[in-house]
Specification:
41% of the residues lie in helices and 16% in strands. The protein is an alpha/beta fold and 482 residues long. Strand 5, helix 6 and strand 6 form a beta-alpha-beta unit. The chain has a domain of 227 residues: Rossmann fold (3-Layer(aba) Sandwich), CATH 3.40.50. The strands form four sheets. It has a six-stranded mixed sheet with strand order 3-4-14-9-10-13, with helices on both faces. Strands 8-5-6-7-15 form a five-stranded parallel sheet, with helices on both faces. Pyridoxal-5'-phosphate binds next to helix 11.
Amino acid sequence: MKYQSTRGHEVPQSFSEILLGGLAPDGGLYLPVQYPQVTADELEAWRKLSYADLAFEILSKFCDDIPAEDLRALTRKTYTAEVYCNARAGDNTADITPLRTLGEEGGTKLQLLGLSNGPTLAFKDMAMQLLGNMFEYALGRAGLELNILGATSGDTGSAAEYAMRGKRGIRVFMLSPHRKMSAFQTAQMFSLQDPNIFNLAVEGVFDDCQDIVKAVSNDLEYKARQRIGTVNSINWARVVAQVVYYFKGWLLATTGPGQKVSFCVPSGNFGNVCAGHIARMMGLPIDKLVVATNENDVLDEFFRSGAYRVRKSAETYHTSSPSMDISKASNFERFIFDLIGQDGGKLAALFRDVDEKGGFDLSGTPEYERIRGEFGFVSGRSTHDDRVATIRDMSARYGITIDTHTADGIKVAREHLSAGVPMVVLETALPAKFADTIREALGHEPERPAAFEGIEKLPQRFEVMANDASQVKAFIAGHTGL
Ligand SMILES: *Cc1c(COP(=O)(O)O)cnc(C)c1O
């Protein structure tokens, strides 16, 4: 399996060559030269597999340069009931991603696929935990070290820290805005005592943290000497790890070959639903891929109108589903590449327009027609009032508390039900992470998985830093010894 850049200039690379990297050198994103295909017989044979072994079967089609026994050991080490232990009472934790039927609506089953039972209670753990083990394995084989530098306003940073804690050859330097995260999120990250995890609380806002990461990364000499890397959502291994739960969801929602299932995905950077698109391209019988956005509706606007118009930071709203507050969907380029027939030159021109003119418009083109037809994409948006109403309705109707992002998914999924086609909504976080909105909707605190009781009282380990890239650089150099 070889990988190409969406912008077309790169010589094909192997999985191991792109694992530790981010963007391709030409500024594009990596995709396989061809999507591996899965037959109906193969799918039926996979019904009896554990999640870890299903992950092995799917990943081995993409990473054929990792010896099979090593890859199997990596998936079995990652996908265990001990790591994904935060499921609700009554869910089958052995499934890792349990499927729960909420009820019958619009002549079909409305179902919830639980992706947030990992250590940080959000779906990012599904891919990040595997990435941690793959990084440790790949660095060990190459005899290299990696220092991961990131900025977080909450979710991604904690998923990265829980995935990399205690891993040989890896350190994490995570910047967050000092005193700006929720008490729960702060406790989740700062209570980690592992010596390879460094929490740097910057006196500034999230954008300042991101600017520092950019400034450090732009110092190429420093970046190379300190072996600085990232774990952002464009990392191919993260996307491919997410492909697995679309297969698992389909297997849990169906009983025989060829049955169609639709998925609804609360979306921000388009990483999650991009994995659904890839599963569909591999031959998984997916009917619709429903993209749900919040008030930051760049993606909904595109799927409705064909116009992709990125927003400026000042036009990006802070909402009660904060992990979907994006102005520019970083994985979107992967879908557009397939949509325009994998033409790297044409793709590069479109994304030059994004940089220079703020977007592009495919309305009225044959490509736009293919979005719904051949590719099965539809979309919708949800607001704070929709979230609150949906959380209340789910609690009253089905006795389940859902988080704000998942509420956006349910709201939009209900606009796209077709009789006889199960609608599987991806649960991207547990409600314990977003207590304020749950209190507003239901008048009480969300339930907390047992492991998180009293987490705010644990000792915290962090460094306060001035909003100054040179201080951050000095801190990193002082702790890597490089
Ligand atoms: C990251 C995140 C999303 C958005 O996922 P993308 O892959 O960026 O589209 C949605 N919900 C939650 C809870 C998240 O953490």
